[in-house]
């Protein structure tokens, strides 16, 4: 599952080439985002039309996971266990409920969530 910060960096092509290549391979196959990531990507107040088009293309290629009772209950559990912002708790809960690895640069908030498999793309080994 791809978090908003990774999606923005990928779409903007600001990541190192080897990481962009790894993400290309993930995105060329099946990838997921949370409905929260969709809201975050399209909800920026100063989004340009060009950015909106690129974000929408990314979203259209993704499997967007909507909220359901399992995700809501897991979110409640996470929020009771850890001090985490609601959007991050929903994203983490979604990854947990669907047994997905979360690709995010938000180590600070996500590392404190038990049972979340988190990979920071900047930590991926150089494939060149």
Briefly, what is this?
The protein is mainly α.
Describe this structure in words.
With 128 residues, the protein is mainly alpha-helical. It has one domain (4-123): Rossmann fold (3-Layer(aba) Sandwich), CATH 3.40.50. The protein contains seven helices and four strands; from the N terminus they run ααβααβααβαβ. It has helices at residues 4-11, 17-28, 35-42, 49-61, 69-81, 86-97, 107-110, and strands at residues 32-34, 63-65, 102-103, 118-119. Strand 3, helix 7 (107-110) and strand 4 (118-119) form a beta-alpha-beta unit.
Jot down its keywords.
128 residues; mainly alpha; Rossmann fold; two-stranded parallel ribbon; 7 helices; 55% helix
| Distance from first to last alpha carbon | 24 Å
Beta strand count: 4
Q: Within the CATH hierarchy, at the fold level, what is the topology? A: Rossmann fold
Low-pLDDT runs of 5+ residues are: none
Please specify the SSE layout and strand pairing.
Layout: H1 4-11, H2 17-28, E1 32-34, H3 35-42, H4 49-61, E2 63-65, H5 69-81, H6 86-97, E3 102-103, H7 107-110, E4 118-119
Parallel strand pairs: 1-2, 3-4
């Amino acid at each position: 599952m791809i978090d908003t910060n990774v999606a923005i960096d990928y779409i903007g092509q600001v990541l190192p080439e080897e990481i962009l290549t790894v993400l290309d391979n993930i995105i060329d196959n099946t990838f997921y985002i949370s409905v929260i990531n969709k809201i975050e990507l399209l909800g920026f107040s100063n989004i340009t039309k060009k950015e909106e088009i690129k974000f929408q293309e990314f979203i259209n290629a993704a499997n967007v996971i909507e909220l359901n009772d399992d995700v809501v209950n897991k979110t409640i559990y996470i929020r009771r266990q850890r001090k985490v912002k609601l959007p991050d708790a929903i994203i983490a809960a979604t990854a947990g409920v669907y047994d997905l690895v979360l690709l995010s640069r938000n180590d600070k908030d996500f590392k404190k969530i038990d049972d979340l498999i988190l990979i920071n793309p900047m930590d991926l080994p150089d494939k060149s």
